[in-house]
Design a protein that fits this description.
The structure holds three protein chains of three kinds.
Chain A: H1 7-21, H2 29-53, H3 61-78, H4 83-104, H5 110-131, E1 137-138, H6 153-176, H7 178-188, H8 190-195, H9 200-226, E2 228-229, H10 236-249, H11 256-270, H12 275-292
Antiparallel strand pairs in A: 1-2
Helix pairs in contact in A: 2-6, 2-9, 2-10, 2-11, 3-4, 3-5, 3-9, 4-9, 6-9, 10-11, 10-12
Chain B: E1 8-19, E2 22-33, E3 37-41, H1 48-55, E4 63-68, E5 71-72, H2 78-83, E6 86-88, H3 101-108, H4 117-121, H5 125-144, H6 160-173, E7 178-182, H7 190-205, E8 209-213, H8 217-223, E9 226-231, E10 234-239, H9 241-246, H10 248-253, H11 257-261
Parallel strand pairs in B: 3-8, 3-9, 6-7, 7-8
Antiparallel strand pairs in B: 1-2, 1-4, 4-5, 9-10
Helix pairs in contact in B: 3-6
Chain C: H1 3-34, H2 41-59, H3 63-89, H4 94-116, E1 130-133, E2 136-139, H5 140-162, H6 164-174, H7 176-181, H8 186-208, H9 219-233, H10 238-258, H11 263-277
Antiparallel strand pairs in C: 1-2
Helix pairs in contact in C: 1-5, 1-6, 1-8, 1-9, 1-10, 2-3, 2-4, 2-8, 2-9, 3-8, 5-6, 5-8, 6-8, 9-10
The chains are: A mainly alpha, B alpha/beta, C mainly alpha.
Chain lengths: ~325, ~270, ~290
């Protein structure tokens, strides 16, 4: 189990070093913006992917992203709380609501559950529209912490990078532990897992709660960064795109969702054209992957693949 | 050391189950003594798999109770029932196909893990130690069953008979007190069946009670202390193999059963 | 409460409801036959409207013929999809088909947006004016939609009940293996299913074209409502699709008129409640 010197660890360290040391020298705000969104999208993609990997057809991730964002918005702007107080609360709030959702819907499986999660996204979005009368609201910046005063994009970048790194690290640990094995077991054959003493229902709900809680944290970072928050950021399409990040990148691997998020965040920005082209780009990427790369982009390089399992479609 | 008088480990009381208009189980009632091997036989559609599903918690009965070691387990979730020592195997698709055999056995050791989920997720030294221990136990178990050579093979690519054995291995990993085997020899060759018979004998030697659904009469007659016969969801007869082989009702239910019964090994 | 308004609301509800019945029937048909969640149905509906617009407003083809051509064309598109798109996917995982459909829909919507721009297009109504029956005022455009939709639904019903291949389709949706064993050709039932489903959705789009603006954005909300109808009525159930469509159409019509914008929210909340109580839908099984 000793992995020092292992090429994967070296790669991880190199990547981390680059991601930490280089950005302060990037003056181009456009590039920094992309990096920040890659980070946010990676967090959303990783957490959603873990939920999907327990076998739940969950399409409601954006609802909890929204809850986190609006919790921060309400907390800092209307309740005058410090951002650093409301930040963890936003995550906990999103997580608890996800637990409630998971518990209430525990007897519903498959397609009806997917529709329920879709309905949830719309209920959250329409509630926002109703409460805010459809107008976007501005969100105050976080208070300074150490030397970060969040007046510049780079501060947000480090914040997002830290969060994304933690999530990735946690995913890695879970994957290597027996929890990762059991998650796979639950998805592959839930009845067998249940007959071996695994409380599959509880497992799924807890994973849902934790992952949606983290999505809430992502929303909590997004709100002050975007400065102006409106319901258009929290549509069902966004939820679907989050799932697409994981599918295109590779659902069965640790790095898949990250790579998918990075690829699909950058791609529309470097291609010319307006919004309609974005959809065509996403759609084409998904179709190419579904037809030719069932395991996702990670399968292009054996380096990123998890060799303990066969790749889907192989 | 067992006490002189055997106690009842499983008590099935008046189980009834309906699917739409079909009465799959109708007032089924029998007792299982600890340490015995009990066979459940009956024509296709007699309700054997439904019975297993109700006992192991995957279905709720309309009427009746299931008592395990004196406690009422009717309607409990399957994982709770498995945790209390009543474990079943599956007839079809009985494994986690996209993982290795060793991974399957280790997943089956779920109930043996003591370290909590938080420490496990963070892979603390205690968690890692426990993982090593469980891994050794799993390999040992596979070794004792002659399955060690398959440890790194993906289970979906293994031959059918081996998959069955791995399924039984997984059930044993849960350290059951009562084992429900659902048609374990289906699709097995005669050599594989002989291996399984030996295995079930060994399981009984370890003090595990076995409830066996089977179509292979040779297996039933060789192994079972008692047999319960189901037909159209009702208990048709119950008794020792000799009694059952002479029961007219049973013979009528199975055409040619008498012929098959007379062929059982001495 | 003016009776004119009530009757108009009912008429609107019936018209929209039948449109949803058609799209929901198409969706349920494909799911029942092939197990595929065809999420591109909204875009097919939109294509029905677009093609009708192009033929009618662009080239001057009479409205009814334009609808018929668009319906037939989309049916053929459906057959091609089944043969060359879904056939090649070959996956064990139902989600793959669902996401492929979703991606296909996004692609179609994107292309239409590129070609036609964001502006909504208008078609001239094929009939105008009102009918006055015993003092009840009924607008003819909605009536036309209702009549044609009812004709299509009756045709489908009779088709499934009385024709050999229609019964074959029903057999396959109940038990694919058993149907194959008695000699049903799965290839032809699948092709025909896609033909019927997409042409029905396309017809719905063609019918709606004179009533509302035609643009690339009409697909999304329609798909959403179609999903609600399908899930409430029971996935795979023809009766469920029809009754669910009428129900939602009427509820929404009354809702938007008397309650206003919050109606969308209420619809979703009601959907959630129904699904929690009876996940298979009102007419569904299993």
């Amino acid at each position: 189990m000793n992995k020092i010197g292992n090429p994967k660890i070296l790669f991880g360290i190199c990547l981390a070093v680059i991601l930490v040391a280089v950005p302060p020298f990037i003056k181009n705000e456009f590039v920094l913006n992309i990096l920040i969104f890659i980070g946010i999208n990676a967090i959303l993609a990783m957490t959603n992917n873990l939920i999907l990997r327990t076998g739940i057809w969950f399409m409601g991730h954006v609802a909890f992203y929204a809850i986190g964002a609006y919790a921060v918005l309400v907390g800092t702007r209307y309740l005058n709380l410090s951002y650093w107080v409301i930040f963890p609360i936003a995550g906990v709030l999103a997580g608890l609501m996800a637990l409630v959702f998971g518990y209430v819907t525990r007897k519903v499986k498959g397609i009806p559950f997917a529709i329920l999660s879709v309905a949830l996204v719309e209920v959250v979005r329409l509630t926002i529209v109703t409460c805010m009368s459809g107008k976007p609201i501005s969100c105050p910046s976080p208070d300074a912490i150490l030397f970060w005063d969040f007046s510049e994009k780079i501060h947000y970048y480090y914040f997002v990078f830290l969060l994304a790194g933690l999530v990735l690290f946690f995913m890695h640990k879970v994957e290597k532990s027996r929890i990762g094995r059991e998650i796979n077991g639950i998805k592959e054959n839930e009845e067998v897992a249940e007959s071996l003493g695994i409380n599959t229902g509880c497992f799924k709900v807890i994973i849902l709660g934790i992952c949606c809680g983290v999505a809430g944290l992502a929303g909590a970072v997004f709100a002050p960064y975007a400065k102006i928050v409106g319901h258009t950021s929290f549509t069902l399409t966004r939820s679907i795109i989050i799932i697409i990040y994981a599918i295109v990148g590779g659902s069965d691997s640790l790095w898949g969702p990250v790579i998918g998020a990075a690829f699909l965040t950058i791609l529309p920005e470097i291609l010319p054209g307006q919004a309609s082209l974005q959809n065509i780009v996403y759609a084409s990427a998904v179709l190419i992957c579904l037809f030719f790369l069932p395991g996702g982009l990670v399968t292009l390089s054996g380096f990123f693949q998890d060799r303990r399992r066969p790749v889907e479609g192989a | 050391m067992k006490s002189g008088e055997e106690r009842t480990i499983l008590n099935v009381l008046g189980l009834s189950k309906k699917f739409g208009g079909l009465l799959a189980l109708s007032d089924v009632k029998f007792e299982v003594r600890e340490g015995r091997i009990i066979g459940i036989i009956g024509p296709n559609g007699a309700g054997k798999t439904t019975l297993f599903n109700v006992i192991s918690g995957f279905l709720k009965p309309m009427k009746g109770k299931v008592m395990f070691e004196g406690s009422d387990i009717t309607g409990l979730k399957p994982h709770r029932i498995a945790k209390s020592g009543l474990v079943r195997t599956w007839q079809l698709v009985n494994l986690i196909g996209n993982r290795s055999a060793l991974d399957n056995i280790m997943i089956a050791h779920h109930l043996q893990y003591q370290v909590g989920p938080v420490r496990t997720a963070w892979l603390t030294p205690t968690a890692r130690e426990e993982e090593e221990t469980i891994r050794k136990n799993a390999l040992g178990l596979m070794n004792r069953m002659g399955l060690e050579e398959y440890k790194h093979e993906f289970t979906s690519s293994l031959p059918h008979g081996i998959q069955r054995l791995i399924g039984v291995c997984m059930a044993l990993a849960t350290k059951p007190k009562l084992l429900l085997l659902d048609e374990p020899t289906a699709g097995m060759s005669s050599t594989e069946t002989a291996v399984l018979i030996q295995l079930i004998r060994e399981i009984r030697r370890q003090g595990i009670t076995v409830l066996l659904v089977e179509h292979n009469m040779k297996v039933i007659m060789t192994l079972c202390d008692r047999i319960v016969v189901l037909n159209f969801g009702k208990k048709l007869a119950e008794g020792t193999p000799e009694e059952i082989s002479k029961d007219e009702e049973v013979v009528k239910a199975y055409l040619g059963l008498e012929y098959k019964m007379n062929c059982h090994a001495a | 409460m003016s009776s004119i308004i009530i009757f108009q609301v009912i008429l609107n509800g019936l018209a929209m409801g039948l449109i949803y019945s058609l799209t929901a029937a198409g969706f349920s048909l494909i799911y029942g036959q092939a197990g595929i969640l065809f999420f591109a149905l909204g875009e097919v509906y939109m294509l029905g409207a677009i093609v009708t617009y192009v033929l009618n407003a662009g080239i001057g083809v009479p409205y009814i013929i334009a609808v018929a051509i668009s319906t037939g064309g989309l049916g053929i598109f459906g057959v091609l999809l089944e043969r060359y798109f879904f056939h090649f996917l070959e996956s064990e995982n139902a989600l793959t088909y669902a996401f492929a459909s979703l991606a296909l829909g996004m692609l179609i919507a994107g292309i239409v947006l590129e070609l036609f721009g964001e502006q909504g297009k208008a078609i001239e109504a094929p009939v105008s004016g009102v009918l006055n029956i015993y003092g009840v005022i009924l607008t003819k455009d909605k009536l036309l939609v209702i009549i044609i939709a009812l004709l299509i639904i009756s045709f489908l019903h009779l088709f499934f009940k009385f024709t050999k291949i229609g019964r074959a389709i029903r057999a396959v949706s109940q038990d694919e293996d058993a149907a194959e064993l008695v000699g049903v050709s799965l290839a032809s039932t699948k092709a025909l299913t896609f033909f019927l489903a997409l042409s029905t959705a396309g017809a719905a789009g063609g019918l709606i074209a004179p009533l509302f603006y035609v643009d690339a954005f009409m697909a999304g909300p329609t798909l959403m409502t179609t999903l609600i109808v399908v899930v409430l009525g029971g996935l795979g159930s023809f009766v469920g699709a029809i009754s669910g469509g009428l129900f939602i159409g009427l509820v929404q019509s009354f809702g938007y008129t008397f309650v206003g914008g919050i109606m969308s929210l209420i619809t979703f909340i009601v959907t959630i409640i129904v699904l929690l109580v009876k996940p298979e839908g009102l007419f569904g099984h299993e």
